[in-house]
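Q: Given only this backbone (333 positions), what sequence would you predict?
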């Protein structure tokens, strides 16, 4: 009961690198459990800084039942200025709590967990929302950072096999690095483009940026799939012109996301088509004559599901770090 373990970042990274297919299934199952009500996923809490408007630290508390039975919280910092120093934008920890006692049982480095669950979410959505596959199509990725790299990796594991990738980033070096990563790891054509409009014409468009407000006002066309992972790139009119799938409707329609702006502009939620779990369960089918946009706010239950899996794998190979006497008192008297 009073054991406490730490799982360091290198262990987390190795587990996730070797188990991407497992993570896809874990994320899919977590979505279904959440849809069925076997979870508690309150609002995320944002710590913002007046002198750093582009930076924030977010707390994501959650409980996931099903076969996880853990509560916990992810504490994730997003400081885009880090990238100017060549460092990753985000850093995070995940604290897991035993459901029976409430005691914390482990702390995991979670930037890798967060990136993996975000990328797996995109890949699960891609396969569900383009069921005929990706042969003969192009995927464009807008943004060339860590999340974009993970998304490309998970799309590949999920069997999304386009004819080619196109990468756009305001920083050409980052975009070229992602294109090179795709060519190297997937043996698939991938090129950088400085032309955003060219990227927006691809069959599937993935947004993985740090944008704080919309800059894309061009409507998408029927047959296009948009993975709106960074949530704030699209003007509300673009959202209103498509079928919209969310991970959780209430979570997505807040915090000035593009869907939230669409709700404010339209005064209703008629543009909401359904949830990804609804698609996975066969209860929601997007229209074939409109573009489809998937907008995931990012649920804490996904972090719990992936974190619990990583903890279990680390325990199996003995790579957790036990902290003796972590709790100062273990008896009431």
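A: Predicted residues:
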């Amino acid at each position: 009961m009073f054991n406490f373990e730490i799982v360091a970042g290198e262990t987390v990274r190795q587990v996730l690198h070797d188990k991407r297919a497992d993570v896809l299934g874990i994320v899919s199952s977590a979505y279904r459990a959440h849809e069925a009500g076997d979870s508690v996923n309150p609002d995320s809490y944002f710590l913002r800084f007046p002198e750093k408007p582009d930076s924030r630290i977010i707390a994501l508390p959650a409980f996931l039942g099903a076969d996880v039975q853990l509560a916990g919280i992810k504490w994730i910092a997003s400081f885009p200025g880090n990238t100017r120093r060549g460092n990753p934008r985000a850093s995070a920890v995940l604290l897991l709590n035993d459901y029976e006692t409430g005691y914390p049982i482990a702390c995991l480095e979670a930037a890798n967990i967060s990136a993996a669950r975000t990328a797996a979410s995109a890949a699960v959505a891609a396969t569900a929302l383009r069921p005929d596959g990706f042969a003969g199509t192009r995927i464009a990725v807008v943004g060339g950072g860590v999340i974009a790299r993970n998304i490309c990796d998970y799309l590949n594991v999920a069997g999304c096999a386009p004819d080619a990738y196109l990468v756009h980033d305001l920083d050409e070096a980052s975009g070229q690095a992602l294109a090179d990563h795709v060519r190297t790891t997937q043996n698939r054509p991938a090129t950088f483009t400085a032309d955003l409009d060219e990227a927006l014409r691809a069959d599937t468009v993935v947004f993985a940026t740090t944008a704080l407000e919309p800059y894309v006002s061009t409507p998408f066309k029927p047959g296009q799939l948009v993975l709106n992972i960074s949530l704030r790139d699209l003007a509300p009119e673009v959202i209103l012109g498509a079928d919209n799938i969310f991970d959780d409707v209430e979570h997505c329609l807040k915090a000035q996301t593009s869907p939230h702006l669409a709700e404010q502009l339209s005064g209703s939620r008629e543009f909401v088509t359904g949830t990804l779990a609804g698609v996975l369960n066969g209860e929601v089918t997007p229209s074939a004559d409109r573009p489809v946009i998937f907008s995931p706010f990012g649920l804490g239950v996904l972090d719990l599901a992936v974190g619990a899996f990583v903890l279990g794998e680390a325990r199996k190979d003995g790579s957790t770090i036990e902290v003796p006497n972590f709790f100062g008192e273990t008896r009431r008297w």
